[in-house]
Amino acid sequence: MICGGIDLGGTKIEARFFDGPDTATIEKRRVPTPLFSFDEMIDALVDQIEWLRAQGGNDLPIGVCVPGVIDRETGICYASNIPSTGHSIEAAVKARIGVAIPVINDCMAFAFSEAMNGAGQGEASVMGLILGTGVGGGYVLNGELPYRENGLAVEIGHVGMPLRAATRHNLPVFTCGCGKVACMENYMSGTGFANIAQHVTGQRIGAHELHVVDTNLAERLLNIWTDIVAECLYTIQVMLDPGCIVLGGGASQIPNLTDRLEVALERHRLGHVAAPQVRLALHGDSSGARGAGLAALEFAGAK
């Protein structure tokens, strides 16, 4: 299937040209994201769109995934790491190139990609959970394109951390960038891991630095962090009961993470109800752009 996908993030705007039965990356192009002006960001985005058109023609289905909340009615975005708040990326692009392209949340794009010939293939319901600098979620049911009534569905990173989990590990209340306190992402993201390490040791230790830390200390930090993440997985199961939870983002690369989480989740599960499968993303860092491209194919078919 031929399509183009663009992952518009706080560091880069990455365009990927996909082809083949598994919608695999054939070519890719990355440029820095302009962060000081919405118009400059749109200039860079349109340039990436034109690059994709040069690869696949002007009729190439192209989709864009972005962080943050997108209002379903107006297309207006709300994000903390790109200059899109108060603007509609979709409207701005259409004004420049003359045609509409789908713009969807990056976590929803990730989940859609992994549900379609990805780690969630064959499951009726798939939850995508990104453990990066922050935490985000997407959900796909019966292979259908993700849908958000008001843009907030499965924003699991901003659900409050259960008191029992914080008490179990004597963790403090961390203030979130969203303005609320004790949001899950402040405990279970890559940043959250460093928050926990600072509380336990007085030093900010990233998950990627555990190989240079005393083995006993590394294991202690991992046990706390995986227990917290398992609380989130339990919350997801109780609310959505997915057949599969697919993990992405930098923190998902912690060695043996799925094995650790399956053990931790076993301690939290309710009664004898089977836990969902926990898997790592099959399409890695291309999954967001791939999901946007697949969304563009559906968008083109619906017109």
Task: Write out the strand line-up for the largest beta sheet, numbering strands in chain order.
Answer: 3-2-1-4-7
Quaternary form: single chain
Major sheet characteristics: 5 strands, mixed
Average pLDDT metric: 92
Shape: globular
Fraction of residues in helices?
25-40%
Rg (CA only)? 19 Å
Strand content: 15-25%
Topology pattern, helix = H, strand = E: EEEHEEEHEHEEHHHHEHEH
Structural class: alpha/beta
Distance between the termini: 18 Å
Describe this structure in words.
By secondary structure, the protein is an alpha/beta fold. It has nine helices and eleven strands. The chain has a five-stranded mixed beta sheet.
Itemize the secondary structure elements and their pairings:
Elements: E1 3-8, E2 12-19, E3 24-32, H1 38-56, E4 62-66, E5 69-70, E6 77-78, H2 89-97, E7 103-105, H3 106-115, E8 125-131, E9 135-141, H4 163-168, H5 185-188, H6 190-201, H7 215-240, E10 244-248, H8 257-268, E11 277-280, H9 287-302
Parallel strand pairs: 1-4, 4-7, 8-10, 10-11
Antiparallel strand pairs: 1-2, 2-3, 5-6, 8-9
